[in-house]
Design brief:
By secondary structure, this protein is of the alpha/beta class. Helix content is 33%, strand content 17%. The protein has eleven helices and 13 strands. The strands form three sheets. It has an eight-stranded parallel beta sheet with strand order 2-3-4-5-6-7-8-9. It binds (4S)-2,6-dioxohexahydropyrimidine-4-carboxylic acid and zinc ion.
Length: 344
């Protein structure tokens, strides 16, 4: 196969940041994607409907002239979130989902949730109105090894929340383990899971062997090879539970190449070429459209995009090592393999 036409893909988990960084990275996502779920972990976070509306305007202003890209906004769940404000923003179509960060789990998560009982009324309201909860699924307990934090979160936090809040629709964001994929698969139609591009490519050796590689460090951290293979099987299966959320998360090089480097891989620029390569390696090119363009809208009860993109196989694709931003350079994720599929 040398040409593949698929519905225009969407990115169901994206960090666009703000200011200079937003202006530099928004066009990278708008080039290929029709819509994206926009993460609210700004400093300060996007907590209210009014803040989401203002952020949405800043994103639209940062898009290139004529870009056909719709930002789907989210609110950052705090222990003080007002259920009425949330419900109003959802009813107005201003927000598509709400994001749960356990406090301290990742970048800019300090305002997240410490005591899950405190957000129970908000979660019950979300179940009532059909507003999905996007979950960063890692416990923050210092006693739990970082490589086990996703699996422990499922048992200690996620499963109890889902049991006590029937009808709550949940997306397990950026799953990184076989346990995550298995739990998502068995959760019925109210449970979905996003998988990033980079977790289909790297395992923990890529971060740590032969010198520390800060540009492969993200959260949840990449796990053992058996987990990467489980994610590849899930993503390429066609199972509607699984869909693309790149978690493309730009940080400038000085903040990554640092004694305490930030977590995040920036994949917006080359994601579609990487995914096509991965799906080709798995003999699953015919299921790329389900993963990147169909399963996500189906979970969110939105129509798939009408437009299509064409992927063409040929000589290795050239893409920049870094993109320039007004805040400094941002390194583009290096998949360590030639990419033969370009979006035309
Ligand atoms: O690697 C990550 N980067 N994981 C997250 O959960 C947050 C993100 C960011 O905002 O940089
Ligand atoms: Zn993220």
């Amino acid at each position: 196969m040398t040409q593949l036409v698929i519905r225009r893909p969407d990115d169901w988990h994206l960090h666009l940041r703000d200011g200079e960084m937003l202006r530099a990275v928004a066009p990278e996502s708008a080039r290929h994607f029709g819509r994206a779920i926009i993460m609210p972990n700004l400093v300060p976070p996007v907590v209210t409907g009014a803040e989401a509306a203002a952020y949405r305007e800043r994103i639209l202003a940062a898009l290139p002239e004529g870009a056909a890209f719709t930002p789907l906004m989210t609110l950052y769940l705090t222990e003080d979130t007002d259920p009425d404000d949330l419900a109003r923003a959802h009813a107005d179509g201003l927000i598509t989902a709400v994001k749960l960060y356990p406090a301290g789990a990742t970048t800019n998560s300090a305002s997240g949730v410490r005591d899950f009982d405190k957000v129970r009324p908000v979660l019950e309201r979300m179940a009532e109105i059909g507003c999905p909860l996007c979950v960063h699924g890692e416990v923050t307990d210092q006693a739990i090894d970082i490589f086990d934090r996703e699996a422990v979160f499922i048992d200690r936090v996620l499963d109890p929340i889902r049991t006590t809040t029937p009808g709550l629709r949940v997306v397990m964001e950026h799953i990184t383990t076989k346990q995550g994929a298995d739990y998502a698969r068995s959760g019925g139609p109210d449970l979905g899971a996003t998988i990033t591009t980079h977790h289909l490519v790297i395992n923990r050796n890529h971060i740590l062997v032969g010198g520390i590689k800060p540009h492969y460090y993200c959260l949840p951290v990449a796990k053992r090879e058996e987990h990467r293979l489980a994610l590849r099987a899930a993503a390429t299966s066609g199972d509607p539970t699984f869909f693309l959320g790149t978690d493309s998360a730009p940080h400038t090089d000085p903040l990554k190449e640092n004694a305490c480097g930030c977590a995040g891989c920036f994949t917006a620029t080359n994601t579609m070429s990487i995914l096509a390569e991965v799906f080709e390696q798995e003999n699953a090119l015919d299921r790329l459209e389900a993963f990147a363009s169909l399963n996500g809208p189906a979970f969110y009860k939105l129509p798939a995009n009408d437009a299509t993109i064409t992927l063409t196989r040929g000589a290795p694709v050239a893409y920049p090592d870094k993109i320039d931003t007004g805040d400094g350079p941002v390194t583009v994720f290096d998949p360590m393999m030639p990419l033969h599929w370009r979006v035309t």
